[in-house]
Design goal:
Layout (H helix, E strand, L loop, with lengths): L3 H7 L4 E17 L4 E16 L2 E8 L3 E4 L5 E2 L9 H23 L4 H13 L7 H12 L10 H6 L1 H14 L5 H15 L7 H13 L4 H13 L3
Antiparallel strand pairs: 1-2, 2-3, 2-4, 4-5
Protein name: TerB family tellurite resistance protein
Pfam families: TerB (PF05099)
Length: 234
């Protein structure tokens, strides 16, 4: 003989509310649950009152969600703000390359030691085909950049307005996705290039200070890191 609890479990659900999802887009994203790049579907939902499992009456719309194709977990659309692993790697390579160019533009490219340090840094970041000649050519082209001496932006004074703008455009989107140690590492890579031929010049220090600011490092931390790098034997 079934208990009352068992009898209740067997009773059919006569009515309820069910969400009907419609796919309105797809792509690739970094899934927080899976911990890696996955495909996703962007979904919009409509609530329906159901009777015996049949949707009948509209009960409003739900907030849009992002559904992972692998684990089927739903996330808020803000999950798409996190770059995929592939995109993050590209952002990091671009950041190191841009910082390298800015430091070279500020300190000059006449020292082969500096160029060697710059090439090693860029290659370590993943741009394996980088050469001294390529960096030298790009910096020489940027040296013709107009607008220096305006006094409106210290970074533009140091490396030219184009690179100063690009520093912020490249580093600012990356900073929220890098741990503090990662942001410090990008700054220190630029510092080691600047120090390859001796102490910082004023323009190099200004550029590195701008890099620290764009990476959302506190000013005191930037100054501390630059001073520590200068004391470390190369």
């Amino acid at each position: 003989m079934q208990s009352a609890k068992g009898q209740r479990a067997l009773r059919p659900v006569l009515c309820g509310v069910r969400t009907i999802w419609d796919a309105v887009g797809d792509g690739a994203f970094f899934c927080p649950g899976c911990g890696g790049d996955r495909n996703y579907r962007r979904l919009t939902g409509r609530r329906r009152l159901t009777v015996l499992g049949v949707p009948l009456v509209r009960r409003g719309e739900t907030e849009p969600v992002v559904e992972c194709a692998a684990c089927l977990t739903h996330y808020a659309p803000e999950a798409l703000d996190h770059p995929t692993t592939t995109r993050f790697s590209a952002m990091l390579r671009e950041a190191v390359h841009t910082v390298t160019l800015a430091v070279l533009a500020a300190g000059g490219t006449t020292s082969r030691t500096v160029l060697e340090a710059a090439v090693a840094t860029v290659r370590d970041a993943g741009l394996d085909d980088c050469t001294q000649e390529q960096l030298f050519t790009v910096v020489e082209v940027l040296a013709a950049d107009t607008g220096r001496g305006s006094g409106s932006d210290p970074a533009a004074e140091a490396c030219g307005p184009t690179l100063a703008i690009e520093l912020h455009e490249v580093l600012a989107p990356l900073a929220p996705h890098l741990a503090t140690a990662g942001r410090e590492s990008v700054l220190l890579q630029g510092a080691r290039i600047a120090l390859a031929d001796g102490p910082y010049c004023a323009a190099e220090r200004q550029i590195l200070t701008t890099v620290g600011s764009a990476l959302q490092l506190p000013d005191d931390d930037t100054a501390r890191l630059l001073a520590a790098a200068a004391r470390t034997p190369s």
